[in-house]
Design goal:
Blueprint: H1 46-63, H2 75-88, H3 91-104, H4 110-130, E1 137-139, H5 143-147, H6 153-161, H7 168-174, H8 179-191, E2 195-197
Antiparallel strand pairs: 1-2
Helix pairs in contact: 2-3, 2-4, 3-4, 4-8
């Protein structure tokens, strides 16, 4: 390609010269930051640490106290319950409370009187159930029917003595058991409809 001819009338634009700018850089001096190394802190002794840990434990215990242990009724409460049950005629439950009180404090001096009151009330209830001790019981079931029943040794022995002639009073003497125990067995036999009374 041939170069274009430059016209003599065409003026070349003058070169623009930019003024030189002086840039001054100011370096900021770094401020010294204080050092917080462990070397500048005071040392904590083991005694101080132990004191702080004890304080934390005490606060934790105060914040969450343990619930108090549940205690059962005391001897006084049980003995009051014995008298209340006796007034209602519930001798067996009263005797159970006496047994619980004996487990808590076997040396409690009031236990002997409470048990004596229970036995007296039980004796009165048994005598009322049996009636006159002069009455004569007799077997209501035959021997074959008795064999089918699950009777303990006390009942079996007492049944062998009931012949339709011996009264309650006589059975107390030949039963080989205490009077109270003999009355209990006789009442059980009556309640189970095993014996009846001889009509007069």
């Amino acid at each position: 390609m041939s170069a274009r001819a430059v016209s003599p009338f065409q003026r070349t634009p003058p070169e623009v010269v930019l003024p030189e700018l002086e840039v001054s850089v100011v370096l900021l001096e770094e401020e010294e930051t204080p050092s917080y190394g462990t070397a500048s802190l005071p040392s904590i002794t083991a005694d101080v640490l132990a004191f702080l840990s004890e304080g934390d434990l005490a606060q934790a215990e105060e914040a969450s106290p343990e619930p108090p242990a549940r205690k059962g009724p005391g001897v006084n409460t049980l003995l009051v319950g014995v008298d209340e049950l006796l007034s209602l005629g519930d001798v067996s439950s009263a005797l159970e409370l006496v047994g619980k009180a004996e487990q808590l404090d076997p040396l409690e001096p009031r236990l002997e009187g409470a048990r004596a009151r229970c036995e007296q009330a039980q004796r009165a209830a048994l005598e009322q159930r049996l009636g006159s001790v002069k009455q004569v019981p007799r077997l209501k079931l035959r021997m074959a029917e008795l064999m089918k029943l699950s009777l303990d040794a006390r009942m079996g022995f007492l049944l062998s003595r009931i012949d339709g002639h011996l009264s309650y009073e006589a059975l107390f003497s030949v039963s080989g058991m205490s009077r109270m125990e003999t009355m209990r067995v006789l009442v059980q036999l009556l309640d189970q409809d095993i014996i009846t009374l001889v009509p007069r």
